[in-house]
């Protein structure tokens, strides 16, 4: 899983050098950050609607769209998926320590 996110992050970084209109991501960068934020808002709404709808395939599709557009935002800000992975890992480590402390007390 880390690998596909890392490879996608590299493609998103490389698209910064692409001509506007040459690809979906290049076009989104050219429209500016507000356009990326708008897509994130739309995909978040579509995720909620898919969850209410109850179709698991549609839910996975919409969450993939949501993750994808958040990765585009990160890349636009000069960041890669590894920064979010590191933050989640840090939290997981903290919660692991808390659980261990509770067990040991
Ligand atoms: N993973 C994705 C990906 N997920 C979703 N999307 C696009 O995100 C958009 C989702 O928007 P919507 O659901 O609103 O669908 P839509 O109505 O077609 O989109 P809009 O016209 O409203 O923008 C669609 O156009 C999808 O094609 C993606 N576009 C690209 N990628 C990956 O990003 C890489 C770079 O993409 P390109 O720059 O297009 O080569 C590719 O190799 C892919 O791996």
Describe this structure in a few short sentences.
The protein is mainly α. It has five helices and no strands.
Description:
The protein is an all-alpha fold. The radius of gyration is 17 Å and the shape is globular. The longest helix has 24 residues, at 81-104. The protein has helices spanning 2-14, 24-31, 33-53, 56-76, 81-104. The protein starts with a helix and ends with a helix. The model has no long low-confidence stretch (mean pLDDT 93). Helices cover 83% and strands 0% of the residues. Phosphoribosyl ATP (PRT) binds next to helix 1, helix 2 and helix 4. This is Phosphoribosyl-ATP pyrophosphatase.
How many helices in DSSP terms?
5
Q: What structural category do the secondary elements indicate?
A: mainly alpha
Small-molecule binders here are: phosphoribosyl ATP
Instruction: Compute the CA-based radius of gyration.
Output: 17 Å
Instruction: Count every beta strand, where a strand is a DSSP E run of 2 or more residues.
Output: 0
Largest sheet: none
- The separation of the N and C termini measures 35 Å
Helix fraction by DSSP (H/I, runs of at least 4) = over 70%
Give the overall average pLDDT.
93
Main location: cytoplasm
InterPro entries: HisE, PRib-ATP_PPHydrolase-like
Family: Belongs to the PRA-PH family.
Subcellular location: Cytoplasm
Layout: helices, strands, pairs:
Blueprint: H1 2-14, H2 24-31, H3 33-53, H4 56-76, H5 81-104
Bound molecules: phosphoribosyl ATP.
Protein name: Phosphoribosyl-ATP pyrophosphatase
Pfam family, one: PRA-PH
Family: Belongs to the PRA-PH family.
């Amino acid at each position: 899983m880390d690998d596909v996110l890392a490879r996608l992050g590299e493609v998103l970084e490389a698209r910064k050098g692409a001509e506007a209109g040459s690809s979906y991501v290049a076009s989104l960068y050219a429209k500016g950050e507000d356009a990326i934020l708008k897509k994130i808002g739309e995909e978040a709404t579509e995720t909620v609607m898919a969850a209410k709808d109850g179709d698991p395939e549609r839910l996975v599709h919409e969450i993939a769209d949501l993750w994808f557009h958040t990765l585009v935002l990160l890349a636009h800000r000069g960041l890669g998926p590894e920064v979010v992975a590191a933050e989640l890992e840090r939290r997981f480590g903290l919660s692991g320590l808390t659980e261990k402390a509770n067990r040991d007390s």
